[in-house]
């Protein structure tokens, strides 16, 4: 297991630094929890396959985003220190953790998941396992569909070392001219435009047979190098750094050019990781290390597959018995009628939705869709961070602009890994005359807000949506997020001011109810934590419950430590990494920190402060886009809104209460930074045994049945 840092022994009084935990190690601990979903035999079989793929994708992102930065720090430390610097030890700890998880992933795949797939008629085969008839079909498929797409690239004085794209799987061949002992290298990329597992049809429709594309190419390589002797081959995969920093410009066209250039340069960034099959050809291994300027610490010999993300089509097979029970989001009561006017519903009282339990299409999409068609609507404004490919939101905005409505859309061009897609939609909106802007110079716009301005009998009225998640129809079905629809004039005026800041040159906007980063959010959070300390010291009820994705901001960590040391109970529900260790004696004794991982990705941000109230519903609740990270509070535009209507507070408290009772999907962070998976017992209440997601689905269905009764 990963070496854990010992709890520091320090002179009293202890400080927040005594409970600090490394961000990168904590992030890997999160991915360990993801991997556990694949290892857990309580998880349906095809969902286990899916989690193998998610684990791989998560780890890819970690290497792309963090490793180059850590290496830069290492070089800086080496140039100013003697002996093994802290970053060197840090990198060794990260490598140890990654190697452990690779071994667990391969062991689970080879010895548990593959045999169970076979027991259920799903056979992922190697060439040696094929029947003669299957080999004939495989060879025919290779000739028709694979061979034309391959490009063998040699390395010799007339052929430079071939360019290799990020996260691409390649076969490195050792070739020799007949009667020669000289090794020659050639690389063949495994095309990512083709399925990574080729279906081999069989008359028995109760069975499915697949052959890996890499294996198919390997065993038909003779057709690629006629007249040459193939001595050996080794499969490998490279990961490039994704962090490209170029100077921004306050000119719109220049910013677009900068982002396009970042995308171009990302393709040629240094290689930060080489994944290679176990027992590789040593000559190929050495050649790749020299070419990419890698050390042994950068090379990982994988015990099984190189890229499990290619298994997603297998995970998506329509075999209900091997998957989670399907979930169909429910339409909220107020919008059940197809003819329901969403603006009248919001006007009657704030509406809160919780996805994917509540329908995204019937609420958020409907809000923008109706606004685009409504002749009374005069303006629509939205922020876009990630919207996906087939987005109904952009189509609605285009329709609105073409009908003469004022449309303003802030598109964040530097949303990592979505830059190209966002550039595309920005151009499409500009074509039809929408006002497209790219935010405040030096800040990413991460807030999830939409504003509709409508001409009504008593004048213009604003309607706002403030959410915790992106306007993305696909992730809305698998991410848990919360959104508030309101026409509260104070909140809507704050949203108007926020859009003015984003689209214009307002330097000191004021906000009455919204918490907006980087303007007032950190200060407000710190004030509310201090208020809980003051209340506790005065004998008043004090409690902090916060649910979000990641915790790293030193100021808020310090504030939580001070609250704990003052005796305030703090419940943190943090899906991803957390840099504050709970239960450290004298520091975080009154802090508990849990993570919930399961079929949905926990993405909502909910903040609760008792504020001296005897009953929870009289406390303060907030939702919004920001985590407790320095980047969210300092380098991004974020918005958090108070939830004031009592029925909505009840629902938020219910969500938090279910999370805090969960013993099926919850993991508790230990004082050393590790996590312990909770296990339900027969004595636990049903909600604890079901887990957060199943409990909320059951509750949603129960309420839907009640309203139809």
How are the secondary structure elements laid out?
Elements lengths: L22 H17 L5 H34 L7 H34 L2 E4 L6 H15 L6 E3 L13 E8 L7 E6 L7 E4 L7 E5 H6 L10 E12 L11 H15 L4 E7 L4 H11 L6 E4 L9 H4 L26 H7 L2 E5 L5 H13 L3 E8 L7 H11 L3 E6 L7 H13 L3 E3 L6 E2 L2 E9 L2 E9 L11 E8 L2 H15 L11 E3 L3 H17 L5 E6 L5 H13 L2 E6 L16 E6 L4 E2 L3 E4 L10 E5 L5 H5 L1 E8 L2 H16 L4 E4 L5 E3 L8 H5 L1 H17 L1
Parallel strand pairs: 1-6, 8-9, 11-12, 12-13, 14-25, 17-22, 19-20, 20-21
Antiparallel strand pairs: 2-4, 3-4, 3-7, 5-6, 7-8, 10-17, 11-15, 15-16, 16-17, 18-25, 19-23, 21-26, 23-24, 24-25, 26-27
User: How much of the sequence is in beta strands?
Assistant: 15-25%
- Percentage of residues assigned to helices: 25-40%
- Number of helical runs? 19
Euclidean distance between termini CA atoms: 53 Å
Low-pLDDT stretches: 79-85
Query: How many extended strands?
Result: 27
Largest sheet: 10 strands, mixed
The rough form would be described as: globular
Mean pLDDT across every amino acid position: 90
> Helices and strands: which structural class?
alpha/beta
CA radius of gyration: 27 Å
Binding site for ATP: 58, 479, 575, 603
Keywords: ATP-binding, Kinase, Magnesium, Metal-binding, Nucleotide-binding, Phosphoprotein, Transferase
Function: Catalyzes the reversible transfer of the terminal phosphate of ATP to form a long-chain polyphosphate (polyP).
EC number: 2.7.4.1
């Amino acid at each position: 297991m990963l070496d854990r840092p010992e709890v520091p022994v320090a002179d009293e009084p202890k400080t927040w630094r005594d409970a600090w935990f490394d961000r990168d190690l904590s992030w890997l601990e999160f991915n360990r929890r993801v991997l556990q979903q694949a290892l857990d035999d309580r998880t349906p079989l095809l969902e286990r396959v899916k989690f193998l793929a998610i684990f791989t994708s998560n780890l890819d992102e970690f290497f792309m985003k963090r490793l180059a930065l850590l290496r830069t720090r290492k070089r800086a430390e080496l140039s100013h220190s003697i002996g093994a610097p802290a970053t060197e030890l840090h990198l060794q700890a990260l490598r140890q953790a990654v190697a452990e998880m690779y071994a667990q992933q391969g062991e689970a795949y080879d010895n548990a998941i593959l045999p169970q797939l076979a027991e259920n008629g799903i056979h992922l085969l190697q060439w040696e396992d094929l029947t003669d008839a299957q080999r004939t079909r495989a060879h025919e498929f290779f000739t028709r569909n694979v061979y034309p797409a391959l490009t063998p690239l040699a390395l010799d004085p007339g052929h430079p070392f071939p360019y290799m794209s990020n996260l691409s799987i390649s076969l490195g061949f050792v070739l020799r001219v007949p009667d020669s002992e000289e090794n020659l290298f050639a690389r063949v990329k495994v095309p990512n435009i083709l399925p990574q597992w080729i279906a081999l049809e069989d008359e028995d429709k109760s069975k499915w047979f697949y052959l890996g594309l890499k294996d198919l190419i390997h065993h038909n390589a003779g057709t690629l190098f006629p007249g040459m002797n193939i001595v050996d081959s080794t499969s490998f995969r490279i990961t490039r750094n994704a962090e490209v920093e170029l100077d921004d410009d306050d000119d719109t066209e220049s910013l677009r050019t900068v982002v396009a250039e970042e995308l171009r340069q990302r393709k040629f960034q240094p290689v930060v990781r080489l994944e290679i099959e176990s027992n590789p050809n040593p000559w190929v291994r050495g050649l790749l290390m020299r070419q990419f300027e890698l050390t042994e610490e950068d090379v990982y010999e994988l015990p099984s597959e190189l890229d499990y993300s290619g298994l997603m089509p297998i995970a998506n097979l329509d075999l209900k018995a091997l998957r989670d029970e399907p979930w169909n989001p429910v339409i909220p009561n107020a919008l059940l009628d197809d003819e329901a006017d969403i603006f009248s519903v919001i006007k009657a009282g704030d509406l809160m939705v919780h996805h994917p339990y509540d329908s995204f299409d019937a609420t958020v999409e409907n809000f923008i869709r109706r606004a685009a068609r409504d002749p009374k609507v005069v303006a629509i404004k939205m922020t876009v961070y990630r919207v996906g490919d087939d987005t109904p939101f952009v189509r609605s905005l285009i329709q609105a602009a073409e009908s003469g409505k004022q449309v303003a859309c802030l598109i964040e061009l530097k949303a990592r890994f979505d830059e190209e897609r966002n550039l595309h939609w920005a151009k499409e909106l500009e074509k039809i005359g929408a006002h497209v802007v790219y935010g405040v110079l030096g800040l990413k716009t991460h807030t999830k807000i939409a504003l509709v301005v409508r001409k009504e009998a008593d004048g213009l009225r604003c309607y706002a949506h403030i959410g915790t998640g992106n306007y993305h129809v696909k992730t809305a079905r698998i991410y848990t997020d919360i959104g508030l629809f309101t026409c509260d004039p104070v909140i809507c005026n704050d949203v108007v001011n926020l859009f003015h800041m984003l689209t214009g040159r307002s330097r000191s906007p004021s906000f009455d109810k919204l918490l907006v980063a980087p303007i007032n959010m950190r200060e407000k959070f710190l004030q509310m934590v201090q208020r809980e300390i003051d209340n506790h010291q005065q004998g008043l009820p004090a409690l902090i419950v916060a649910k979000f994705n990641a915790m790293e901001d030193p100021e808020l960590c310090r504030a939580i430590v001070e609250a704990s040391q003052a005796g305030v109970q703090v419940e943190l529900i943090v899906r991803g990494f957390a840099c504050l260790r709970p239960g450290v004696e004298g520091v975080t004794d009154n802090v508990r920190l849990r993570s919930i991982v399961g079929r949905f990705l926990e993405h909502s941000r909910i903040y609760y402060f008792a504020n001296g109230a005897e009953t929870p519903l009289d406390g303060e609740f907030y939702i919004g886009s920001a985590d407790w990270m320095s980047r969210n509070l300092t380098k991004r535009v974020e918005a958090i809104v108070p939830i004031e209507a009592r029925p909505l507070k009840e629902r938020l408290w219910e969500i938090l209460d279910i999370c805090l009772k969960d013993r099926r999907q919850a993991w508790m962070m230990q004082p050393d930074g590790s996590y312990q998976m909770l296990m339900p017992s027969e004595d636990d209440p049903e909600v604890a045994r079901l887990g957060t997601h199943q409990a909320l689905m059951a509750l949603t269905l129960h309420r839907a049945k009640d309203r139809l009764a």
